[in-house]
Amino acid sequence: MRTAQEVESCTLLGNQGVKYPTEYCPGILETFKNKHPENEYLVTFNCPEFTSLCPKTGQPDFATIIINYIPREDMVESKSLKLYLFSFRNHGDFHEDCVNIIMKDLVRLMNPRYLEVRGIFTPRGGIAIYPFANYGDDEHQDLVRLRLAEAFKATF
User: Fold this and answer.
1) Which residue from 22, 52, 80, 122 has the highest number of Cβ atoms inside 10 Å of its Cβ?
2) What is the pTM of this model?
3) What is the DSSP string of 88-102?
């Protein structure tokens, strides 16, 4: 069981007075320490209610965002991730930009061994867009290339 000291950095979890951000807010992300840094294991987040705005028209875009990562020392706390993703609600950017911003923010936050972000955006105007961005440290460059190649084959 984790001690109170081990989770003191998680200020949003269990906090009933949390306010949802209305602007893009990477500073809301929080981490906790990985108790198993010697293991390579996969953490997956499936976020089916992502919304952002078209930067030109202001119309809403809807997506499922899937985040996979292999942690090192720091892990993202899920409630802070939820609030962070919610902060895109009034953010005007293209789908590809949102996915890359999420990836870069999480890499900066956690310094993972490997991380990927996939956006499965709901079609608008008869076209669906599925951006994919990934990152790997020096030891995971083969995985970066493999997963990117697999993303080319993915169909939904």
Assistant:
1) 52
2) 0.91
3) TTT-B--HHHHHHHH
